[in-house]
Amino acid sequence: MSSTPWMDVVLRALPDWLTTRRWFAGKDRPIDAVQALETTVLVDGDPALVHLVVEVRQGDRRDVYQLLVGARRAEAPDVPAAAVIEVDDGITMYEASGDADVTSELLGLLAREATVGDVSFHLEPDVVLDAGLRGRPITSEQSNTSLVFGSQYILKLFRRLSPGLNKDLVLHRALRDAGCQHIAQPLGSIAGRFDGQETTLGMMQQFFPDAADGWAMATTSVRDLMADPGTAPEEHGGDFSGEARRLGQAVAHVHADLARALGTADVGPDELAGKVRTMTDRLETVAADVPQLAPHVPGIRAALERVQELPTPLRSQYVHGDLHLGQVLRTVGGWTVIDFEGEPAAPLQERAALRSPLRDVAGMLRSFDYAAHQLLVGQPDDVQALTYGALAWAQVNRDAFCEGYASVSDLGDPREHAVLLTALELDKAVYEVGYEHANRPDWLEVPLSSIARIVEGVA
User: How far, in Å, CA of 132 to CA of 16, rounded?
Assistant: First the structure.
């Protein structure tokens, strides 16, 4: 069936529908207009599959997203009802990432390195794909959408697009070439045209069917400890500190491989002052929106300003940029680091910038705090034993991670760089305050309590 008439219906429905998607980043303001930039029919007929690139206008903000739109003269199969975009003239139009009947064609297009319109499919050198596998979506993701094919491949579709090669693809290729043992091998990519540049739409990688998510492992350990309050974290059956130490080693190896593959740069006093201004501006912006942060602003600002007193030059390099326990997988071969795209909400220029490796360390330290304290959300305030246990678990695993990192990295122990590490951890916590205020107000106390402890410790 022709795509033109029903695509017009889709575009009219998108302003309301997009705000219901977890990966849509503009929920904080109304949508003024949605305009189609590219429409490519990947599968024609019934069902049909259309690759759609749209520009979403929200005041002075212009963001570009990609969608997989399916259409059938029947109900959409195996897709949650919320994924239906519109039903018109007997045709159901829907978000098609859950429809294996049509998404399996993506694997076939990659396997034969096809080009359809402005959408091109590429394999990495010496890669051959088995095109006979069906895909299924991973439902836990937020900023992107991934499809798993059989037990062999995972295809990540970048929802919010920026022109050029995606950092995730660039860094995975560099790490592969450096022989890094802590990544999923890149297998292929999908590209389109945006702002006159070839732009990464998706990336195919090796899939680990036996992998355990780092966040799930850590929170299970915390839950075991909570069930036996008063026990030291390293003494209970779910002790995580050994894994935290090995994770620190894996992250240090990744940093070393990135430095070897892509080089490093020196940060002088002027650039360092600029980085401090960026963090201070973020603090002021979040504090203006979240009154609960105000009492901590002077202490945070003082901690940030101390960074400018550090001797320069400082080393910077490519890093992960959004490292936390949800970005690591434990496989039978050890820890694997995933998703090198950087913080999805950050501007492209910031995500692509060279940074201190300590930014990734700070992100992981914050994640250990989150894993420990998220289980206290909604608990009575007077449960002192649980609070003590959470603090003890976080500290044991933060220390173990730093010890593991120090055993491999030429930077030494991250805790020896306390001024910079503290500033970066506070900057991450300020971001968390803004996120929780906008999305999960019940969780706001998690980063606020961490900020209070950090500021008190450095006052």
Answer: 36
